[in-house]
Amino acid sequence: MSATSDFAQTPEPPYYAVIFSSRRTEGDNDYGNMAERMASLAAMQPGFLGVESVRGADGFGITVSYWASAESIAAWKADVEHAAAQAMGKARWYEHYEIRIAKVERAYGRPSVRHCGQAAGSGTNA
Q1: Strands 2-3 and 48-55
Q2: CA angle (58 as vertex; 54, 60 as ends), nearest 5
Q3: Helix or strand holding residue 118 (H, E)
Q4: Which residues pair with 66 in a beta bridge?
Q5: CA–CA distances in Å: residue 25 to residues 4, 28, 52, 83, 96
Q6: Does residue 106 lie within any of the structural domains?
Q7: Is the peptide bond before 11 cis (omega within 30 degrees of 0)?
Q8: CATH number for the domain including 84?
Q9: Which residues pair with 103 in a beta bridge?
Q10: Which of 34, 50, 55, 88 has a 20 to 30 A CA-CA distance from 5?
Q11: CA–CA separation, 73 vs 63, rounded Å?
Q12: Residue 30 lies in a domain
């Protein structure tokens, strides 16, 4: 799989994750331009925390966007330009997709410094 972004710099939990799993249709059909536009537009939304995205050569991809609240997710879903892109996705770009929304209660990882310069040990680990 190829990565389209690096690790998102999220704050200490809690926050929300929108997990978008999809399988693309054949051909670009201007998908690349729209994906870049949506990433830029999402980054301007109140409550947006970051995004991570990968897609394999077989067309299967996962994009996880991070949000400060359920309300900020709802506002993004209702954004007029985003709604138009969603309609185009259903009509042209996605063979299948699933959206899952989760509340992040714990987050930890490596290297020893993560999340906006805070030490990994400063949060609650499993």
Answers
A1: antiparallel
A2: 45
A3: strand 118-119
A4: 17, 50
A5: 18, 8, 21, 19, 9
A6: yes
A7: no
A8: 3.30.70.100
A9: 16
A10: 88
A11: 14
A12: yes
pLDDT in tens, the chain (126 residues): 444 458 999 999 999 999 999 999 998 889 999 999 999 999 999 999 999 999 999 999 999 999 999 999 999 999 999 999 999 999 999 999 999 999 999 999 887 555 554 444 444 445
Q: 94-104 and 15-24: which strand pairing?
A: antiparallel
DSSP 2-65: EESS------SSPEEEEEEEEEEPSS-TTHHHHHHHHHHHHHTSTTEEEEEEEE-TTSEEEEEE
The conformational region for residue 93 under phi > 0 = left, psi -120 to 50 = alpha, else beta, is alpha
Residues 25-36 as b or e (16 or more Cβ within 10 Å = b): beeeeebeebbe
